[in-house]
From TrEMBL:
Identification of the protein by name: F-box domain-containing protein
Domain of life: Eukaryota
Domain F-box as annotated: residue spans: 5-45
CDD domains according to UniProt: F-box_AtFBW1-like
Annotated source species: Lithocarpus litseifolius
Upper taxonomic lineage: Eukaryota, Viridiplantae, Streptophyta, Embryophyta, Tracheophyta
Length: 232
């Protein structure tokens, strides 16, 4: 019987081809599967395998407020289709200046149950456990299927493939509401250190250099970065 059981190398070769949500279910089979799938080596192998596959299509992520349902919605659309303004005109008040919308290109692994992008159902609605109490969240960016959202001092990392989201610590540098400021963010993956990083840049009253903080998932906290002043 044991002659027909695959060894660990064969198992990894099989598991790396599964979508993320299927891997989550496989972790519940036994302790050995849980340990294997949870190792950094397998996570990297699974990621590299999926990144090496030919890109069939990108998706467009749309974040908006639905005035009919009184809720924030996140929907995923095929980039092969024109911008779905006609579809969203039924739900959006484009004259409302408080609406924040952003489109970005995202390689996201979503199970296709009969063609999500087929007419007339030309989009997928994604469910995030994080919802801001007031206002609307901003999409900071995406990397390897992870999305970074922010609202005020709250930052959230969200993996739609496995339906999980985690909140990050509040930044150390706080803003005085009476002062004018400009804020920008960056989120990405550093392959040299195998770490996801979130950078927060704050210009207070037009000051140069700005206040710069960086959060890494490995450290679990924010640290201040020395800014470099550039002559323009």
């Amino acid at each position: 019987m044991s002659d027909y059981l695959p060894n660990e190398v064969d198992i990894i070769d099989i598991l790396k081809r599964l979508p993320a949500d299927s891997l989550i279910r496989c972790r519940c089979v036994c302790k050995s599967r849980y340990s294997l799938i949870s190792t950094p080596h397998f996570i990297t192998t699974h990621l590299n395998f999926n990144l090496s596959k030919p890109k069939t299509q990108h998706q467009l992520l749309f974040r908006y407020y639905d005035h009919n349902l009184y809720k924030h919605r996140i929907t995923l659309h095929s980039s092969n289709d024109p911008f779905p303004r006609n579809h969203f005109s039924k739900y959006l008040n484009y004259s409302d200046p408080a609406i924040h919308m952003r489109l970005l290109c995202l390689d996201l692994e979503v199970e296709d149950k009969g063609g999500f992008f087929a007419y007339p159902l030309d989009f997928v609605e994604l469910d995030c456990s994080y919802e801001p109490i007031n206002g609307i969240s901003t999409i900071v960016g995406s990397s390897n299927g992870l999305l970074c959202l922010t609202h005020g001092y709250l930052y959230v990392l969200w993996n739609p493939s496995i339906h999980k989201a985690i909140s990050l610590p509040v930044p150390d540098f706080r803003l005085n509401s009476r002062r004018h400021y400009a804020l920008s963010h960056g989120f990405g993956y550093d392959p040299a250190t195998d770490v996801y990083k979130l950078v927060r840049v704050v210009y207070v009253d037009g000051s140069v250099p700005p206040q710069v903080e960086m959060h890494t998932l490995r450290s679990g906290g924010w640290r201040y970065l020395r800014s470099c002043q550039c002559d323009c």
